[in-house]
Amino acid sequence: MSRALAETGGSGSRIRAALAAVRAATGLPVTFGGPVTRGDLCLRELVGTGTGALRGLKVAAGAGLGGRVIVMRRPLAVRDYPNDTGISHEYDRAVGAEGLLSIVAAPVLVSGQVRAVLYAGLRQAVPLGDRVVDEVAARAHRLARDLAADDEARRRVAALAEAGTRRSSGEALTAGEWEEIRKIFAELRTLATEVGDAGVRARLERACERFTAVSRGEAVADRPSLTPREVDTLAHVALGCSNAEIAARLAVSAETVKSYLRSAMHKLGVHTRLAAVSAARATGYLP
């Protein structure tokens, strides 16, 4: 998988979007945060700050409010940051330069690991109620879900790339390997519909297209134009899924699935589900 895809689907754009959502949901004027790498936090994303004092700040696990959140793995809030006795104060200068007093921070937990921390704050020493803390925690949970989806997408793209490399080098895949690749392909198509980042989604779709071309050994120049959703539907038909199962996976109605399937069969010039799958493979839409 390309470095660009890893970065786009990683922390930066996801954290920025989450911080904007925190600001809108809580009404707090300042939000900031960043990824956690090898246990330490780096504050890379700032929204509503008046200085650059926090940008690039490295926060060690256990230190300050964010470091304590990393260790305790739950949201924490302070009313008067410089005078709070429940945290250490290694970062008072940077926080003080921004004038922040009331701050809440929440961990972003992915597969049991803290992957990022989100903060929101005020320049007044007032209590941050449960609603504010819950909102920040909820946005952290959503970010965790999105990062997990990105991780899975990267894993499946890597699996397709490995299979494509083997195929292009002339190494034959076993029937069992082909079946697993087809499952990965179908699931990757589904993930592409769930990923919020348009750039990541486009890269996932292009990765699928490249793999099907490699699996045939050549690109197909003249073929009917199937829509992404029609390909998604056929990818799941190839796995033996019923219309109801496909509808659940693609988050559409069963009638919509039937519509996609009818349209795909018409374009491919066939009259059955299995014939549509066969034609889609023959024209390079499916592996």
Protein model, in words:
It is a single chain. The protein has about 290 residues and is of the alpha+beta class. It has 11 helices and 7 strands. The chain is elongated, with a radius of gyration of 24 Å.
CATH architecture of the largest domain: 2-Layer Sandwich
Rg, please?
A: 24 Å
CATH topology of the largest domain, what is it called?
A: Beta-Lactamase
CATH superfamily of the largest domain, called what?
A: GAF domain
Shape: elongated
Q: Write down how many β-strands occur, each being a DSSP E stretch of 2 or more residues.
A: 7
Tell me the count of domains: 2
Estimated helix fraction? 55-70%
Secondary-structure-derived class: alpha+beta
- Give the class-level CATH name of the largest domain: Alpha Beta
What order do the helices and strands follow? HHEEEEHEHEEHHHHHHH
Q: Mean pLDDT, nearest integer?
A: 84
Residue stretches low in confidence (pLDDT < 50, at least 5 long) are 1-10
Number of helical segments?
A: 11
Strand-residue proportion: 5-15%
Largest sheet composition: 7 strands, antiparallel
N- to C-terminal separation?
18 Å
